[in-house]
Amino acid sequence: MPLAQPGPGEVLIRVEAIGLNRAEALFRAGAYYYPPTLPGSRLGYEAAGVVESVGENVTAFAPGDAVMSAANFDFGVHGVYAEHIVLPEESVVRGPDGADAVTSAAMWLAYTTAYGGMVETGGLAPGDHVVITGASSGVGTAAVQTALRLGAIPIATTRGEAKRPGLLELGAAHVITTDTEDLVKEVRRVTGGAGARMVFDAVGGPGFAALGDALAPGGTAILYGWLDRRPAELSMNWPLTVHTYANGTLTRDPEFRRRAAAFIGSGLTSGALDPVIAETFDSLERIGDAHRLMESNTHTGKIVVRVGEGR
């Protein structure tokens, strides 16, 4: 395709690395929450690269700046699976100081989802037990680290035993294997019978009710994904607070982007936040292999694809 030039308020970015997200596989399969509009739809929320040029009235970025996409757009308008992308200024954020392109491509969406969902929306506090489902995913591993940084106590869930050692090494206080263990009983056991203060769920469906059953009275359940496409069911363990969380909506707010960037940047500098990268593919031509790995569900953390030489 011909290389577009940035118009007023737009930024041209040379992409160096792409971070994959489950949303892209769902969108490709026609199972995302909005349908493709062909032939215009593209793929990819998350990329890191370098600004090559800017359009009129752009004040926050200049050529040579290391940046990331803010993942606050729809695939019908933008996508980052490319060597070069043009994004509006409000869809670009600065890369963390000192981070290479692969690290940067693995950071923004996972950690803003964890921070925005658990902290800004749910009010996670030190000492709170939080149940994190799908804990081996990019967002799941980011949520474990985010909880630890706040002084909260992460309880990770995974379907089988294979991923338990890695989640414990990551810092999960407890790991529940839902194929063989009763989630509610285990949460009650590890919390001394009190129940968790929060659940952070990527799955939804009928199993969402059991997560509510594992909450302490007045606890908070946050649903940020719908890997189970069936209707979500609510627990009768009242009172409880339920939030549905849309990261793309929150990241359209420049003040949220500022706070999230500060949280991520300082966490990366201190070492409290360190993205778990399952595998890095060496070229954009490997994007199909990267998607096959993502759909296999055998990995832990983020899948990243390099584009060009990178940093």
Automatic annotation (TrEMBL):
The keyword NADP applies. It comes from the Bacteria. Keywords: NADP, Oxidoreductase. The keyword NADP applies. InterPro entries: ADH-like_C (IPR013149), ADH-like_N (IPR013154), ER (IPR020843), GroES-like_sf (IPR011032), NAD(P)-bd_dom_sf (IPR036291). Residues 1-305 form the Enoyl reductase (ER) domain. Gene3D superfamilies: Medium-chain alcohol dehydrogenases, catalytic domain, NAD(P)-binding Rossmann-like Domain. PANTHER family: QUINONE OXIDOREDUCTASE PIG3-RELATED, ZINC-CONTAINING ALCOHOL DEHYDROGENASE. This is Zinc-dependent alcohol dehydrogenase family protein.
